[in-house]
Amino acid sequence: MAHIAKIFAGRAQQVLQVAAKQPQLAPRFYSAAANLEFIKTEVTGENKNVAVITLNRPKALNALCNGLMKELSASLDEFERDRSIAAIVITGSEKAFAAGADIKEMQPNTYSKCIMGNFLNDWTRVAKCQKPIIAAVNGYALGGGCELAMMCDIIYAGDKAKFGQPEIALGTIPGAGGTQRLTRVVGKSKAMEMCLTGNMISAAEAEKSGLVSKVVPADQLVAEAVKLGEKIGTHSQLIVQLCKEAVNTAYESTLQEGLKFERRTFHATFSTEDRKEGMTAFVEKRPAKFNNN
Questions:
Q1: 256 and 117 belong to one structural domain
Q2: What class of enzyme is it (predicted)?
Q3: pLDDT at residue 158 above 50?
Q4: Same domain, 242 and 209
């Protein structure tokens, strides 16, 4: 268990450095937004504490090219540094969240180029974000699009959404988590069926299998995802990040390792002002006022 303790110490130290949230009174658009080609960004919600990143390659059904993924990573860097942002929503259009990776860009690749360039290694920024990320999926989430959604912490789907890993029909396999994250979420049999046939599943089936946590009408999807982000934003950002780490540890480790990590993280919350405030507010029957310390 020594390595688990070491992992916890590093993660906890990083998260415990989060400072007080800075209130923002007006809508904000980021300075880099004017230079974005493949995505759009904005900050929304009643308290202007939810960032929305919209994939914006409509003619290509939001196919994930290197340029888009670089812009997405840079925007996540910026939102993660912004202490006023409590949660992030990633969405696309009603027609497509992302219909896959950009096949035209990928087609000329060779095995040696993939190995020497460590292809797709820099596509994992979403999975490494400390702040909660909600995928709001309308339309097609196929291949890399499905993988991108699974890198997020929570998936909300529009009622016409479609999920799938069709790489097998292109003579290849998923390369950004499709065989790994999907199996952990929906189980071996369903993951095998999806990956070996390339068949799509509906939003309703995705919810039934545990891939999606909620299905809503397509025109209400982003609003519902923002509402979820706002609910998360009512809690301590510090504790939210610790809790996210604990859930991710369950996803990636054995039960005993996860239980040890959870217990030590629980213990660590007793060193925070927000834990003291939360319990004191409960005892005093008043709303808690968290300061992210």
A1: no
A2: lyase
A3: yes
A4: no
In 3-state terms, the chain is what percent helix, strand and coil (to 5)?
A: 50, 15, 35
Q: Quote the number of domains for the chain.
A: 2
Catalytic residue among 167, 207, 224, 245: 167
Residues 123 and 266 in one domain: no
Of 51, 60, 96, 101, catalytic: 101
Of the candidates 55, 51, 186, 211, the residue with the CA atom closest to the CA atom of residue 132: 51
For residue 145, give the nearest of 192, 107, 102 by alpha carbon. Answer: 102
| Residues of the domain holding 122 | 39-234
Q: What is the pTM of this model?
A: 0.87
Residues 134, 196, single domain; the answer is yes
Question: Which of 45, 92, 100, 144 is an active site residue?
Answer: 144
Q: CA-CA-CA-CA torsion for 180, 184, 187, 188, nearest 10 degrees?
A: 30
* 206 pLDDT higher than 60: yes
144 a catalytic residue? yes
For residues 240 and 13, the answer to whether their CB atoms sit within 8 Å is: no
Q: Of the listed 141, 143, 147, 246, which one is catalytic? A: 147
34 pLDDT band (50/70/90 cuts)? low
Q: How far apart are CA 145 and CA 218, in angstroms?
A: 17
> Does residue 290 lie within any of the structural domains?
no
147 has catalytic annotation: yes
- Do 202 and 258 lie in a common domain? no
